[in-house]
Amino acid sequence: MKFFDEMRIAASNLTDFASDMAEPSVRLGVTGLARAGKTIFISSALHNIIHAGRLPRFEAHATGRIASAEIAPQPDKLVPRFRYEDHIADLTDRRIWPVSTSRTSQVRLSLRYQSKETLKRTFRSDRMAIDIVDYPGEWLLDLTLMELSYRDWSSRSFEQASKPLYSPHARDWFAHCDGIATSLANPEQGDEPYLETLARSTAKHFTDYLTAAKQARGAYALLTPGRFLMPGEYQDSPTLSFAPLPDALYSKDKHSLWAMMERRFEDYKASIVVPFYRDHFARLDRQIVLIDLLAALNEGPETLAELEETITEILRAFRPGSRFWLRNLVSRRIDKILFAATKADHLHHTSHDRLERILARLVERATERVQSSGGECQTMAIAAVRATREATLTVEGDELPSLVGIPLEGEILGEDAFDGETEFALFPGDLPANPDLFFRAAGQPAPWGPHPDKAAQLEDEPNEDDLFQDPLCFVRFRPPHLEKDAEGLPRSLPHIRLDRALDFLLGDILK
Predict the structure, then answer these.
(1) Measured between alpha carbons, how far is 455 from 452 in angstroms, rounded to an integer?
(2) 203-212, 391-400, 451-460: which has the minimum mean pLDDT?
């Protein structure tokens, strides 16, 4: 980033510090790729804190030191408010999952609490504001562009599109690029209007490829720019009229197509990516990174390897470090990051620790960077809203740990089609005890050698070559039915380890 942007970040941090004198605040980033569950996590966390939910491991809440909690007016007047009430109505009244995030939004939770520390009770306010920001997962991917040149990004894009999982979707774009050199060879077609037409045509072919690849690969792939997939107010803007070019078209001529594309790439970073980073990420204190790991495991080893690379690249843009108030006046640091595998309610609890081991292996490179900078990391399997309950199925004399819930209407599992009203019990399958099996199958080395738990290496442990051939068995369930209290309000949303997540992220601040 440029010096001017760093000064803007410092000015914002100083403004935040001044406002904290009246009411201390902490900025919590809820990050994750598309469909990882960001909106659900924020909604459930707010609902449980406000309505005195079941949070036994969130110490400040469980001991009654949080006297009150309410949604307060947010400090950033130009950022849309997170639609908490609408999302809770979806979850509790209509019992549907909220729609995915399509724009940036923010919410401020104002707490009144009693500190356990005498000095804090004497000299600090008994109020604390928690600012939470939500934004589309596609935009998160753009943070990886900040340190790339146009030429490097072009090379990376073509390399990715040439891989077997992507090349079928890139055929039209590749064919168009093959014809660019022929088009530019015509001297009558080298003027600015023609280059503009060619740039827009090339951008359209590239966007069509990104869209097709996104539909096929889901949220795991590092497909950039993110705004091409979710343009918002930038639809049809010249800012989005660029695309990677083959290195054979590289030119130092400032009037060339390459120069035009390069300028627009740099404009995109300067006008969209850097402000997004400056206004949100550079001001964060704590971070939770939500990951739909179960879906990635079901997709296969290539997807798991992609997800690992994507998470590692995204985390490079964060600013981890130890918490020190004097430095944070001008350069804020994220001192705690929680990596959370979501949708843990799709597995029996006996597999939760195994899911956490796989997650720890997935984010190992990112964790090492955070810890080397003085930050603290933790991994956890959670379900912000628990949609199932556990039971035991007896099949041919064998007792199987199973899940019971109401699948969404239209879900299909084998020969069963669901109506959205009928309960269904299923055995979701087990995860292997040794996480290295997944990564050896994905072509990744096991960094710590054999798993320390020798009992995990039984003869019936699956071979890594066959590991992904028998996917986990799960469907999407409806949110649970909630009983209402004496005042007619729905009771708090059930969850798995949401209280532990909140205690890790906020517990020390509320001591």
Answers:
(1) 9
(2) 451-460
CA distance 424 to 412: 12
Q: What's the rounded Cα separation, in Å, for the pair 237 and 384?
A: 37
Residue type at 160?
Answer: Q
Q: Check: CB of residue 150 under 8 Å from CB of residue 241.
A: no
- The residue type at 296: A
| Separation between Cα atoms, residue 91 and residue 53, nearest integer Å | 15
CB-CB contact of 45 with 28 (8 Å): no
- Residue 473 has what pLDDT? 74
Alpha-carbon gap, residue 499 to 501, rounded angstroms: 5
State the pLDDT at residue 453: 43
CA atoms within 13 Å, Cβ hemisphere of 90: 15
Alpha carbon 254 to chain centroid distance?
38
Q: Which candidate, 132, 134, 127, 133, places its Cα nearest to that of 509?
A: 127
Which whole number is the average pLDDT over 368-386? 94
State the pTM of this model: 0.86
In order of 56, 165, 175, 404, 405, the CA distances from 393 in angstroms are 30, 38, 54, 10, 14
Q: Dmax over Cα atoms in the chain, in whole Å?
A: 80
| Separation of CA 294 from chain center | 14
| Residue 459 pLDDT greater than 60, yes or no | no
- Interatomic CA distance for residues 107 and 73, integer angstroms: 8
DSSP 240: G
Bigger pLDDT: 21 vs 218 = 218
Nearest partner of 505 among 28, 20, 16, judged by Cα: 28
Nearest CA to 271 out of 3, 5, 77, 7 is that of 5
Q: How many residues does the chain have?
A: 511
The total of other beta-carbon atoms located within 10 Å of residue 164's CB is: 7
Which residues does residue 341 pair with via DSSP β-bridges, in sequence order?
291, 381
Q: In what order do the strands lie in the sheet with 424-426?
A: 389-395, 398-405, 424-426
